[in-house]
Fold:
Amino acid sequence: MPSVDNQPLAGCRVIERSRSVAAAYAGKLLAAMGARVVLLEPEEGSALRRAPPWLEGSQESALFAYLSVGKRSSVCDLRTPQGQADFVLELGEADIFIDDTPLDERQACGLEPESLARRFPELVHVSVLPFGASGPKARWNAEEVNLLHAGGEGYLLPNGLSNELFPDRPPLKIYGHFSEYQGGSSAAMCALAAWWAVPAEGGQYVDVSVQDAVLAVGAFALQRLGDGSLEHRTTRSFRYGGVFRTLDGYLELLTLEDRQWLGLVELLGRPAWACEPALADPLERSRRGDAINQHIRDWMARHPTEHIVARAQQLGVPAAKYRTPEEVVRGEQERARGLFGPATLASGREVEVLVAPFQFRCTPLLRGGAVPALNEMSRETTA
Amino acid sequence: MKPLRSPLAGIRVADFTIHAAGPFCTHLLSQMGAECIKIESRTRPDAFRKPHAVYGRMQAATFDQVSANKLSVRLNLKLPEAVALAKRLVAASDVTAESFRPGVMKRLGLDFEALARVKPDLVMLSLSSSGQSGPDSHFAGYAPLFGAWGGLGWMSGYSDGPPVEMRHVMDHSAGMHAALATLAALHQRRRTGLAQHVDLAAREVASAMIGDALVQASAGEQPQRPGNADAAMVPHGIYASNRPDRWLTLAVRDQGDWLALQGALGRATTDPRFASAAARRAHREAVDELVGAWLRECDADDTARRLQAAGVCAHVSWNMQDIADDPHLRARGALAEVSAPDIPARLAVGAPARFSVTSDVGIRRLTPTLGQDEDYVYGELLGLSRAQRSDLESREVIF
Structure:
């Protein structure tokens, strides 16, 4: 049975100061695995409480709900002596401190890594900034759209069908906060790595950059550059496969192995063009990719998505429906795995929130919880 | 030689992962100092050792990022003796990682339950497309399918266009989340001494990237694909400059940014439609048209620098050559120049972060040749004699 005590990070104490999605997501991931995460907020509350998308009718932030379930909230203004005193008390009990305060503001807030390291020698102090805390662009500022493009992936989107349909449009960002989530995931990962080293090495300062994280997950494009190929959104499409319009929606199809190609030929009903002996050679299929895709498109447009996907999976052909958020929330697979947990918003409204994109099979994660009301910790203390 | 100071020094990983997501996970652990032993065979070598025609790569890769830092051994897991040897390797390691389709490790006799018998405090990572449980757990998939299943593909795209397929960033994001969860399991082992089986579904990582939209959907709403627009920030998006295919990304967060933008560009507008953030949100298209006209005459690189100096979030849409040439990324060690006797100097992704104390993070060695570390792994770690290894090789157990 899941319990507070048997969670992977039970006993881990985290202090989070966040105005960026990256830092907040790092805290969310640690909280989901059982760490006690205290969100230190300014008097007016974290800016993320007001960030879109908002739930209809209430103007409550769906983003903040996602990022803050299971955290605690305490107001702490570091520009006041009382705030400093509270902060020192909190840090004295913390294992990990996640902070995204811009460099120019750190001194005034007493957040410089050297002074924190002297006072808290066992603390893992993780800085999460758009371009990191060191290097010539450390003081540059950025939002998601800038970061996805500073890390190289934005320039490469969209590829495939979308690029074919709208070749003259500007590049496209990935939905939401993809880059910041990479930065947050990297920050949480590096925090746990540094915490692992504490018994041998003591605490330390970890400088995480969202741009670095985007580049890291885009490593393959850099590898291609080293191979002599500068990738571009117009040319990095799969030679065949990709996004297909079906009779009633869209699906993704990708056959990388010979047996998957043979399954696809079967799925398409063994048409004459696909049975040509030359197409037994994967390199030849690659050369004729455009023609193959045109045949597949014609066929897909005549068949319903669910039918294609079900048959494809039977035949071992990797194919997936492009599912809407509503379909994901209602999905049988997601329900069976308990991907979502009930969450109560500060207004009392009930929603469901994705718990974490991983499971611990020996000690399942606790699911759901409350979105912390601003400063609920001190309200509890004074009540 | 001075010993390395890495955060994960002393951690050993038995690495059975294949494709991109799993190997990226163990590569990250290796970058932070874990000793990672990659297990392949001559009959089933890793994908980078072969042509990859669908990606247009017609020969083996000369350098493979996700294999860097790893030690390589051969093991033909179709044979029982090889499975027994694999178990010894697992018992000598802290972490076992695999990314086969669910069921494959069990068929090999290397599932969590079997391995926990030889390693009671086993930390095992299983990374798959849909997870180890549920009706879809047997589905095969790659990055674009993870994005499709998870909802990220649907939510990404032009508002009036089709969904967009995710590429390797999706694999690698799954790998990074897997590395995080694996480290959490190691901490749990340190605290409790107990085994843990981490089950990562790559499609759920794609869903985690639309966590806000899923909250909306759970409340009965139908989130719409926003393209490059932002609900709060206007102007916001990707704008053409005075050079073809040289785009400027821009995010104006508030009124101060809006005024700073005009100042930096030497422009001014008194149009009431643009006078406040709320007004601009009500006239998005007109704002985009105006700002687009201003920026079309500008040099994107120079403008990004000037806007940053004025405190406005701006950056050029960079291609990989821009990134390769960036002194900032090099100064941070995020870009590392690597070379080997048969690999001319080239750039790779370096340290995932800068650690102030355990600062030896990043790439230490390049892509291993198949089986190059068997003297150390089979000889030193498992204690096999030269004669025993020759015998196993002759019977294609080590193969």
Chain A touches chain B through 162 residues (CB under 8 Å). Chain A has a mean pLDDT of 96. The longest helix of chain A spans residues 178-196.
